[in-house]
Hints:
This protein has 272 residues and is α/β, with parallel strands linked by helices. It has two domains: 4-157, NAD(P)-binding Rossmann-like Domain (Rossmann fold, 3-Layer(aba) Sandwich), CATH 3.40.50.720; 172-257, ProC C-terminal domain-like (ProC C-terminal domain-like fold, Orthogonal Bundle), CATH 1.10.3730.10. Helix content is 55%, strand content 13%. An eight-stranded mixed beta sheet has the order 3-2-1-4-5-6-7-8, sandwiched between helices. Helix 7 (160-170) crosses helix 12 (245-268) and helix 8 crosses helix 9. The protein is globular, with a radius of gyration of 21 Å.
Amino acid sequence: MSKITFIGGGNMASAIIGGLISRGTPAGDVHVVDPDAAKLAELATRYGVHGGSPDEALPASDVLVLAVKPQQLKAVARQLAPALGDALVISIAAGIRADSLSRWLGGHARVVRVMPNTPALVQAGLSGAYAGDAVGEDDRALATRVLGAVGEVVWVDDEAEIDGITAISGSGPAYVFYFMEALQAAARAQGFNPDTARKLAYHTFSGAVKLALDSEDDAGTLRAKVTSKGGTTERAINAFETSQLRATIIAAAAAAAARSRELGEELGRDAD
Ligand SMILES: NC(=O)C1=CN([C@@H]2O[C@H](COP(=O)(O)OP(=O)(O)OC[C@H]3O[C@@H](n4cnc5c(N)ncnc54)[C@H](OP(=O)(O)O)[C@@H]3O)[C@@H](O)[C@H]2O)C=CC1
Ligand SMILES: O=C(O)[C@@H]1CCC=N1
């Protein structure tokens, strides 16, 4: 495996690092740069990875993963540019387009834009990936190896699709957790204690997902098999439909995709 340096050791970087280490990447091959010493200490304790400065880490890196907030990326990229060398740069920042980043890195061509998600921590991630024509097959294969260690990788030819992937699988775990929270609250409202409410909600979710993944039926058919005519489920689904829950979910994802495009426009300008 290649030497990988993460710039930013926050939530998403921790998830990818945790996934890489549990899949056998040697801890000595992973460096993390983050201004927060407490975060670095926690990553070192949990996964054995090294913290350090960009000056130490960059010259020895084959792959650089930029995992700072989109609002921080321009300044970070400009600062890294002089010491970058020939590393493959993978940006996971929402919204920021590959050509903006390449420009901030002083015209660095080996840039891949990726949208991962936090289930990477348990090797169940999904990453959308895009690279321009200047990025060769070897670099695409290298990016696939890094992200593929923590889940599925889906390459797109049109960068605009990364905004859609951000809205579905990038932000999506939060939608799922929102539904799980709501189902727990519903269980509490039925009088169950917190432990039982959690068990009922989580186990129902994981059981339904396992059933869907293992089944040849689509989700609509599986739903119909639960929904007896004149029964209890029908009453609940009718309540969802009356409150236009499906349309709300579709509109929410469209809002997330629009925000991704907006971030690319707003933060991609070179004016400041
Ligand atoms: N969380 C998620 O589910 C997903 C996030 N992403 C993307 O990943 C990126 C990171 O998100 P997330 O992990 O949630 O954010 P976090 O805020 O948790 O992590 C970003 C980290 O970068 C650090 N940082 C800031 N400036 C620098 C610098 N100059 N050098 C090194 N590190 C620096 C921050 O420190 P400090 O807090 O002190 O500023 C922070 O620890 C974002 O661009 C986001 O769009 C993509 C997919 C999913
Ligand atoms: O909320 C965000 O902006 C980031 C990108 C996708 C998930 N988290």
